[in-house]
Amino acid sequence: MTVTTGKKRDKIDRLAELAAVRDDERGVSLWQEAFRRLRRNPAAIVGAVILALFVLVAVVGPFFVPYGATDSIGIREGVVKSGQGIIPGPSGEHWLGYDHQGRDVFSRMVVGARQTLLVGVVSTLIGLAVGALIGGIAGASAGLGGRWGRWVDSTLMRFVDMLLALPSLLLAVSVAALLGASLTTVMIAVGVVSVPVFARLLRGSMISQSNSDYVLAATSLGVKRSRIALTHVVPNSLAPVIVQATLTLATAIIEAAALSFLGLGNPDSTIPEWGVMLADAQPYLGIRPALAIYPAVAIIVTALGFTLLGEAMREALDPKLRK
Amino acid sequence: MFRFIVRRLLQLIPTLFGLSILLFIWLRRLPGGPETAILGERGTPEMRAAIRRNLGLDEPILVQYGRFIRRMIRLDLGTSTSTKREVTTEFLQRFPGTVELTVMAMIIAIGVGIPLGYLAARRRGRLLDHLSVGGSLIGICIPVFFLAYMLKAIFAENLGWFPSSGRQDPTIEATRITNFFVLDGLMTREWDAAADALWHLVLPGLALASIPLAIIVRITRASVLEVLGEDFVRTAEAKGLTENVVRRRHVLRNAMLPVATSIGLLAGGLLSGAVLTETVFAFSGIGAFVAESISQRDYPVLMGFILIIAVVYVLVNLIVDLSYSLIDPRVRVR
Amino acid sequence: MTENEILVEVRDLKVHFPITRGVLFDRVVGHVKAVDGVDLDIPRGRTYGLVGESGCGKSTLGRALLQLTPPTGGKVTFDGIDLTRMAPNKLRGMRRRMQMIFQDPMSSLDPRQNVESILTEGLHAHGIGESRDERRRIISETLDAVGLPRWALSRYPHEFSGGQRQRIGIARALVLGPELIVADEPVSALDVSIQAQVVNLLDELQDNLGLTYLVIAHDLAVVRHISDVVGVMYLGALVEEAPSDRLYSEPLHPYTRALMSAVPVPDPDVEDRRERILLAGDLPSPANPPSGCRFHTRCPWAQPTRCAEERPVLRQIGRSRVACHWAERIASGELRPHRVDAELVRPADEGEAPGVVSAPTEPGSYV
Amino acid sequence: MALLDVDDLSVTFSRRGQRTVHAVDGVSFSVDAGEVVGLVGESGCGKSVTSLAIMGLLPKQRGTRIGGKAVFDGTDLIQLDDRSRRDIRGRDVAMIFQDPLSSLNPVIPIGLQVTEVLTRHRGMKGDAAAKEAADLLDRVGIPDPRRRLKEYPHQLSGGMRQRALIAMAVACKPRLLIADEPTTALDVTIQAQILELLKELVRDSGTALVMITHDLGVVAGMCDTINVLYGGRVVETARRRPLFAQPRHPYTVGLLGSVPRLDAGRGERLTPIPGSVRDLLPWPEGCAFAPRCTRRIDACVGEPPEMVPTHDGRSYRCVNPAPLPGSEPVVPADTRREEDKA
Amino acid sequence: AESDRGDDSGGSKKDTLVFGVAGDPKVLDPSFASDGESLRMARQVFETLVRPEEGGTKVTPGLAESWTPDAAGTTWTFKLRSGVKFHDGTDFNAEAVCVNFNRWYNSKGLMQSPDVTPYWQDVMGGFAKNEDPELPPSLFKSCTAKDATTVDLAFTRVSSKIPAALMLPSFSMHSPKALEQYDASNVAGTAEDIKYPSYAMEHPTGTGPFKFKSWDVANKTLTLERNEDYSGTKAKLKTLIFKTISDENARKQALRSGDIQGYDLVGPADVEPLKGEGFNVLTRPAFNILYLAINQKGNPKLADVKVRQAIAHALNRQALVDSKLPPGAKVAENFLPDTVEGWNGNVTKYDYNPEKAKALLAEAGATNLTLRFHYPTEVTRPYMPNPKDIFELLSADLQAVGIKVQPIPLKWSPDYLNATTSGSAHDIHFLGWTGDYGDAYNFIGTMFDRPKDEWGFSNKPLFDKFQKADTTADMGARVELYKELNADVMTFLPGVPISHSPPAIVFGKDVTGVKASPLTDERYSTAEFKS
Ligand SMILES: Nc1ncnc2c1ncn2[C@@H]1O[C@H](COP(=O)(O)OP(=O)(O)OP(=O)(O)O)[C@@H](O)[C@H]1O
Ligand SMILES: Nc1ncnc2c1ncn2[C@@H]1O[C@H](COP(=O)(O)OP(=O)(O)OP(=O)(O)O)[C@@H](O)[C@H]1O
Ligand SMILES: [Mg+2]
Ligand SMILES: [Mg+2]
Ligand code: NI
C-alpha cells in the first residue's frame, strides 16, 4: 500500500513548488515587475518606439543633416520668393522642400527635434524640480504633523491652489511677459505651469505614504525620521510623479508651440524648434500648408508617444492592478 | 449647504489676496515700470516723472499696495493701454462672447464626451472603445490652435459649411440687449440672428471642445468601468432591476462624480483655450482681446483678466462642487 | 527572569484625537477619545490579550504604549523606565526592546524593499551587527525562527503569500531581539488555516525566546487561545480584565457576557444550547461617549441609578478586575437582563469631502 | 425535487497571457425549501463565484465560461435569458453581500433602494411603496424606519446598513436567499444580531437560505446541511452534526483543527493545515488538497477523487478520509513532506 | 429691426460690402485718431478741404474747390463747394470750417495731450495756449470766414506742409451742430485714462458719402450706410461694414469662405495666390520706405562713414526684395519713394559688394565689429511684412562680411519703439515710414531735420538746409532743394534705405470700382458688385 512511485511524488512536489516561488530566481522588485507589465502592453511599445526614434533623431540627427538648418540657400539661389508666394516643395535635393526663408525643411525638422526635446525636457525638469520641492516640503511638513508642519503645509498649498486657479496659459504669459521672450523664458513659463500639478501630486502621495503601516513599522524599528522619509516615503511616492513627468513632457512640447503661436515663443527662429516652425509657417498656410503640417504632425506624434508611454506606465505602476 | 458656500467664498479671499500681491509685484516689475505701460513710446523723462507722481509711485510700497487693493475692490481695473477704454467696460462687452463659446464647447464636450465615454466603457475592447480611446489621445495631443486652423480650413474655407470668423453675420441687423447673441436673438424673437450666432459658434466650439471632450471621454470611460465593477451595481442587478434602471440610476449617476470634478477643473483651461481659439476664429471675446493685449503688452487688461479668471475659476468650481453635492449626498453633510 | 515581574505598566493612559473643522484654518471642535483612561500591567514573559469591538481603541492603545502615537495623558512604564517622558533620541534606542506586528501584512511592508533590506533596516538603525556577515547571520537565524526559507531574502513582499508576509513582519520585529511585542490583529487578515500557523508560531517564539506579548484582536477565541490575561475594551476603556480561562467561564461585566455569547463556536451542540445575549444597536461614537458607564446605553442590566451618572472604575472581584457597579449582583443572578431599544448611532465622517482637492492629473493643456 | 439543484456547475476565467482560472469546478449541491445550506471554505475557494453564477451576476467579460446547471424550481438559471433572469432575481431568488457599505449605492437614499425592488417586482408605487418599505425596515429592526427612508447609506452604521440590505433582499419574500458572508465585515455583537435576524426571517417565511461563510462557527449554529469547498469543488457535504462530530475529509478536519475554540482550554496547540491556499493541485491532476494534506497517499495524485456518498447521508471527495472513531486508519500519514514551508 | 431686415432680404445682398480690417477703430472722431482703422472709417464719413487724387498723392479739390496762398505764402484762401450738407442736415460753409479749426486750435487740457491730437501737433506744432512749455508754437494762426463759401486760413510761417497736410483725415470737417450737441471737445479723464466724449464714440457727423450707423463692439463690426443726400456721386453700396479680424490668415480664410468681400493688409505671400484664385487684388503704389538705421552714438565705430558704407555694401538688398517682399517692391535708393517729387536718381549708390564691405571695414579698422541689432517682433507694417525674416537675412549678410551681430528682439510697441528712438543703447535696427501726404519733407524731413536719438548724429549744414526747404514757398525751388538733400543724405549715409514695398488690398471676385491709393485713401463709395 505504501508503494510510492517516484514519478508521482515528484509531480506533487513539482506542483507544490509551482505555486510557490522557485529558489533559483532572484526576487522581482516592483519596478522590474512594472517594466515587465509595460513590455506586454502594445500601447507602451508604440509609445516607446516613437520616443526612441525621436530621441535618436534628436541626439544624432543633427550630425547627419544635408544642409545647415539656418542657411537660407533658397534665397541665395533665388528660388524661394516667399514674398511672392513662391516656396518650392519637396524635391530630390530638398526632401521636404524649402521654408519661407529658403532653408532646407528636412534639416530643420531634424535639428528641431533636438531643440524640441530640449525645451520639453528642461521645462518638465523645471516644473518637476520646483513642484517636487514645494510638494516635498509640504508633504513632509504635513506628514510630520504638529502645528508648524500643518501651517507650512497649508500655506504652501494655498499658494499652489492659487497657481492652479490661473489658467496655464495666463501663467505662462505672465512669466514670459516678466522675463521677456527667449528660449529660456519659454522653458521657464512652460515649467511653471506644471509646478502645481507636481506639487500636489507629490504632497498627496507623500501624505498617503506617511500614513501607511510600513512607515509606522519603520518608526517602531527606531529608524530616524529623515531616513524614513528618504528610504520609504519618497521612493514610494515617486511612481505617480514619474508618470506625470512623462505626460507633462507631452504637454510641454504642445505648450511651447502655443506660446510661439501667441508670439511669446523663442523669437530667434534661426534656432529651429518645431513650435517655432509651426508658428512661423502660419503666414504661408495658404501657399505651402505642408510647412505647418510637418512640425504639427511631428509635435502630435511625439506628444502621442509620451502620452502613450505615460499612460501605460500609469497602468503598470498602479497598485490597484498589481496582483 | 449655506456654510459650505460661505466657506468656499471665504476661501476665495486668500487666493485673491495672494494673487493681488503677485499682480502688484508683477505690475511693478514690468520692463520700464507702469509708467511705460501707460505712456507708451511717446514718453519723455519729465512726463514719466509726472506720471510716477500722479500714480503715487514715489510713496512707500505699502501705501501703494493699499491703494492698489482699494482699486481692485472697487473693481477698478484701470484703463486698457491699447484701446484707451476702461478694462471693466471692455470685459463686459466681450465676456458674453466668451461665455457663449465656452458654454458651447462644454455642451459639445459633455454632450458628446459622456455618452461616448459611457459607450466605450460598455463596449470595452471593441472597435468603438478603441476608436474613442485613440481619438481622445489624439485630441489631447493636438495643439488647439492647429486644430482650429484645420477645422477652419476644411469646413469653412473649402467646404464652406460654416462661417470662418466672428460671432454673427454683420449683415444681419440684430438687436443687442445682453450681448449674448444667441440669447438676444431668442429674446427679441429674431430667430435668424440667434440661429446665425449659434452657427458661428460651431467651429470654434468644436476646436475649444477638443481637450475637454477628450478628457471627459477618458474620465467617463474609466469611471463607468470602475462603477460597473462596484458592489452596489451588483446589488442592483441582484434586485432584478431592469438594465435601464441599473444604468441610469446606479451606474451613470455614480460615474458622474469624477466627471463633475474634472469639468470644474477644465473650466479654467477653457479660458486659456479661448485665447487661442478666439484668435484663430476672430471671435470677439475676452480670449481674443487678451491675445491682442499680449502682443500689445496691455498690462492692465492682462492683470484684470487674471483676476477675473481666478474669480471665475473659483466660482465655477463652487458651482461644480454644489452640483457635486447634489449628486453625492456624502458631501452634503459638511 | 523572575516570574510575574511586571514588564509594562500602563497608568491612566489617554489618547484623544482632536476633531478639527474650520472655515479657513482648522480649529479643534472636539476630541475623539480613542483611549480614555486605561490601567494595565503586563508581566514579563506573558501574553496580555486585548479584545473589543472595532473602533474601541485597541490599536490606539497598542500604539500609544509603544509611543508611536503620542499619548495625551497618563504614563507608560517599560521595565521601570517611564516612556512618556523620554527624549525622542533615547526613545529610539528603546525601540529595540519593544516591537510591533501589524494587521495587514501587505501594507506594513514597504513594497519596494526586499526582505533582506526590510530585516536589516532595524539592525542598521540600532547599529547591531559589526559586519555584514554578522548581520547576515542574525537575519538567517531569524528567518529560521519564523520558518522562512533562505532564498526569501532577495525577494519582494508581493512575491509571498499572506501567511509568509506575516512571517516577514514577525521576523522584522524579532530581528532586534525585543522583549515586548505588540501584535495588532496579527491574524485577522489571514485565512483560517494560515491563522493557526501564525498563532502557533507566536506561541513557539514565546516559549523559545521568553517574549512578552500584547496581542490585540477582535476575535475573542484567538485572543483567549494565546493570552494569559485578557482585557476587554469598550469605548476607550477596559471594562474587564481576567485570566483567560476565567473570562469564558465566569464573565462578570455585562459587555463581556454579551461578547462571549455572541462568538459562534464550531460545534452544533454548543450553538444549539447557547443562550444569546443580543446587544441592541451599535457602538456609540468615541467622539461623544455616553455619560457614566459607557456601556449603559446598550446594557441589558443597566439600572436606573448610578449607571448613567457615575463612571465605574475597575474593581478586583476574585481574580478578575471589572468596571461595573452591579457586577456582583449580576453574577449572583439577582439582577435580570431586560430589553433595550436600539439607539441610532451615526458613523463617524468618512474622509474628506471630494471636490477640487482631488484634482485628477489628466494630460492635455491649452497652453 | 429540491428548490435549487446545482449540478456540476463550473466557472472558468481565461484571459490572454494569464493562466485559466478554474474558479468553480463542478460544484453540485441542492437546497430544499425552508432549508439552510452552508457553503464553507477558505478565501478563493469559489464560494462567491458559485453564488454569482447562480444569480447570473458574474461580470460580463470575455473569457468567462459557465458550465453545468442550476435548476431553480424547474428552470435552469444558467441557461435563462437575461430578461427572465431579471424577473426571477430579487423576486424569487435574492442575495445579500458581504460589505454592506459598498453594496449600497452611496448617492441614493435607502428608501429608493428599497422601493425600487417593490416597484420592479410588486408593481408598487408612491406612498404604498414607501409604506411597505418602512414596514420592511421595521421588520429587519431598523429603528424609526420612516425617517431612515430618506437617509443615505453613509448615515447609517454598519449593522444598520446590513439590515437595510437584508430588507431589500426579503422585500419580495423570495423563496431562496443567498447570503455571501453577510457578517464578515461586522463586529461579533453585530454579527450575532444579523445572524439572529436571518434565522428569524428564514423561520418565519420558510425561505431557503444558502449561507456562504468561512466561519465554521457560523454554519455550526445555522445550517442544516454544509458543503465544504476547496479549490472550486465541494470536498465534503454533510448535515451539520455529523460533520462537526466526525469530519471525514482531511481538509474539513484541518479547518476544524485550525480554529481556536472559545470554550477550549488555554495552551492546546492548534493543528494548522500546512502550506497555503496557493499550493493548489489542479483538480484534473488529482486531489487539489493533496499538496497540503497530512493524509496524502499516492492515489491522491493522478486521478481526481470522486464524491463518495456514505451510508449516513453524507459524501466526501477523498481516497483516504479521516477515520471514524474506532476504525483503523487506512494509511498512516507517513507521506507528509518533511520540510514543509508551513 | 425686423422690418429693416425685410427690406434687406428683398434688396439682395449685393449692395452690402463686408470688409475685413485688422483692428477696431480707436475713436470715431478723426481729430483724435492716428490709427489706420479710425482713419479708414473717417475717410468714408468725413471729407477734408483738399484731398489726394484718386490713386495718387497729388492735392486735389475736396470740400474746397480751389485754394491760393497770398504772396507771403502764409495765408491761404479756400473757395468752398456750395450746397454741401452735413449728415445731420446742417449746411457746410465757411463758418463751419472756422468752427472746426478753432476747435483744434483752442484745445485745452487733455486735448493738448500728444495721445489725443497727434496729427494736429505733428502738422501744426502747438495750440493757442500751450499748456506744456515744451510744445512748439502753433503753425496755425487764424481762420476767417469771408463769406459763405470763402475762408482764409492764416499761418505763422511758410511751411511745406500746407496745403498737402490738410488732406489728412484728421482735418476732416465736422458738423458744428453735432460737435456742440455731443460735447465733442470734452475729453475727460486723466492722461492715463482718457475718456472721449460721446461725439467721438457714437456720433461722428461729416459730409462724406457714407453715414455712420452703428458700432457693434461685441461683434467687432462698424456699419456705415449710404448718405442719400451726398452732394457728389452717391455711393453705389447701400451698406458698408468693417469687420475686425485681427489675424491675417483669418482674414484670408474669411474672404475665401465668403464671410467678407475684401480685406486690407494682405500678406505679401498671399498676393499671387489670391490673384490666381481670381480675387481682385489691388496693389497700392509703394509710398513707404524701409531703412536700416545706424546709431552713431551707439557704437563709436559707426561714426566712421566708412563703416556705414561697409554696412551698406554688405547688404544684399536685391535678394531681400526678391524673396521677402511682395511683387512690385523695389530696392530703395533714396529715403523716399520715387513717386514723390524731389526724388533723386543721381545719388551715391551702394551696390551689394561683400568684398568692398570687408575692405572698407579693414580700412576703418573695424574688423572686429559687434553690433547690437534690434528688431521688432509681432508686427507687420506696410513697408515690413515680416520683420523677423528681414532681420535674419540682413543679419546673415552682415555676418558674411565679418560683422558680429547680437540680436535683440523686442515687442514692437512700446519696447522696440522706445529702445530705438531714444537713448543710445542701440547700434543698428530697422524701421520705416509710410507717407502721410505727397511731400518729400514728410519723409526725409521727419527723419533728418534735427538731431534724433534714432540716428545719433548732429549735422548742422544738413539741418539748416532742411529748414530752408521747409520754408521755401516756391514749389519748384523746394523740389530742387529736396533733390540736393537726398544726394547729401546718401553721401552722409546716416542709414541704409532698403526698400519700398507696395501694400496690397484685396476685394472679392465680383467687387469692382475701388482704386488702390498710396495713401490708403481707398474710396469705398465707388465700389460695386458686378453681376
Ligand atoms: N489618527 C487618528 N485621528 C483621529 N482619530 C483616530 C485616529 N486613529 C484612530 N482614531 C479613532 O479612534 C478610535 C479608535 O481607533 P482604533 O484604531 O484604536 O480602534 P480599534 O479598536 O483598533 O478598531 P479596529 O478593530 O477597527 O482596528 C476610532 O474611532 C478611530 O476613528
Ligand atoms: N472575474 C474574475 N476573473 C478572474 N478570476 C476570478 C474572477 N472572479 C473570481 N476569480 C477567481 O476565482 C477564484 C474564486 O473566487 P471567489 O470570489 O469565489 O472566492 P471566495 O471563496 O468567495 O473567497 P472569499 O472568501 O475571499 O470571498 C479566486 O481564485 C479568484 O481569484
Ligand atoms: Mg485596530
Ligand atoms: Mg467571496
Ligand atoms: Ni457669417
TrEMBL record, chain A:
InterPro entries: BP-dependent_transpt_permease, MetI-like, MetI-like_sf, OppC_N. The keyword Transport applies. GO terms for biological process: transmembrane transport. One of its GO terms (cellular component) is plasma membrane. It comes from the Bacteria. The keyword Transport applies. Its main location: membrane. The chain crosses the membrane at residues 43-65, 117-138, 159-179, 185-202, 241-264, 292-313. It is found in: Cell membrane. It is a multi-pass membrane protein. Keywords: Cell membrane, Membrane, Transmembrane, Transmembrane helix, Transport. Belongs to the binding-protein-dependent transport system permease family. This is Peptide/nickel transport system permease protein. It comes from Micromonospora sagamiensis.
Automatic annotation (TrEMBL), chain B:
One of its GO terms (biological process) is transmembrane transport. PROSITE patterns: ABC_TM1 (PS50928). GO terms for cellular component: plasma membrane. The chain crosses the membrane at residues 9-27, 101-121, 133-155, 197-217, 257-290, 302-327. InterPro entries: BPD_transp_1_N, MetI-like, MetI-like_sf. It comes from Micromonospora sagamiensis. It is a multi-pass membrane protein. Belongs to the binding-protein-dependent transport system permease family. This is Peptide/nickel transport system permease protein. The keyword Transmembrane applies. The keyword Transmembrane helix applies. Pfam families: BPD_transp_1, BPD_transp_1_N. It is found in: Cell membrane. Keywords: Cell membrane, Membrane, Transmembrane, Transmembrane helix, Transport.
UniProtKB/TrEMBL annotation, chain C:
PROSITE patterns: ABC_TRANSPORTER_1 (PS00211), ABC_TRANSPORTER_2 (PS50893). InterPro entries: AAA+_ATPase, ABC_transp_ATP-bind, ABC_transporter-like_ATP-bd, ABC_transporter-like_CS, Oligopep_ABC_C, P-loop_NTPase. Keywords: ATP-binding, Nucleotide-binding, Transport. One of its GO terms (molecular function) is ATP binding. It comes from the Bacteria. The keyword Transit peptide does not apply. Belongs to the ABC transporter superfamily. This is Peptide/nickel transport system ATP-binding protein.
UniProtKB/TrEMBL annotation, chain D:
This is Peptide/nickel transport system ATP-binding protein. Belongs to the ABC transporter superfamily. It is a peripheral membrane protein. One of its GO terms (molecular function) is ATP binding. It is found in: Cell membrane. Gene3D superfamilies: P-loop containing nucleotide triphosphate hydrolases. PROSITE patterns: ABC_TRANSPORTER_1 (PS00211), ABC_TRANSPORTER_2 (PS50893). The keyword NADP does not apply. One of its GO terms (cellular component) is plasma membrane. The keyword Protease does not apply. Keywords: ATP-binding, Cell membrane, Membrane, Nucleotide-binding, Transport. It holds the Pfam family ABC_tran. One of its GO terms (biological process) is peptide transport. It comes from the Bacteria. Its main location: membrane.
